[in-house]
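Appendix B, record 7
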Amino acid sequence: MSAQAKARRAPGTGSLDARADRSGRESWYGRWTQEGVRVKRRLGLKRVPSTRDGLTRAQAERELRRLMSEAHPRPAPGERLTIGAVGARYLNHLEARGRKHATLVGVEMALRVHLAPFFAEKPIDKIRTSDIEELVALQQRRGLSAKSIRTYIGTLSALFNYAAAPQRRWVAHNPARGVELPPKQDNQDIRFLDPDEVVALVRAAILGPYEQIDRALYLTAAMTGLRQGELVALRWRDVDWPAVSRIMGIPQV
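Structure tokens (predicted):
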């Protein structure tokens, strides 16, 4: 322990320390645990007092944060990554890059409801184009719209691109590329409800134990444009409570 006491770091923030090489020059090193894998990275030279060479502690901290958001440890020997496992890492990747909350919700729903259950424990590097074509056929039999199917397969294709990136190489190629998708449907009958019609729809919810839930779903769909599958996939953690408080004029505690 140095003369300057080390502050206890919050869990998940990694550790930062300086080590000297044989010449006596110190470098910053960062360590953290990601998905059960211990990661160690050299961050750069430590700044010598009264000079501009190297990194200050604050600069080393920022570099550590950046690397933690970008690092993706390779699978352990013998580990076979599934769509569910890669999907969790892909979501972290999107969040670290500041993607919109609606995008994260859509990707999470597609993974949890459609993709991960279908591929189950099948390793991602064993998934073939024929498997994805089977998924498309299953979705069509279940009555999903062409737009929804194209969205879910697009998410799957983006996930494979992520897995095939040079810094990961969990798969050799993207088997979703080139899969024949149902053609886009041009619906000329779409008409938007006006505010009075939305109110009438909400009031028309069938009486019973699900009445309040149905009303909330109808109103949320009208206000956000979410599709049925996205509405059903919503969780309490998806609600922006500070924004709700501001809209409703509720003082925050």
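Remarks on this record: The first helix runs from residue 57 to 70. The chain is about 45% helix and 10% strand.
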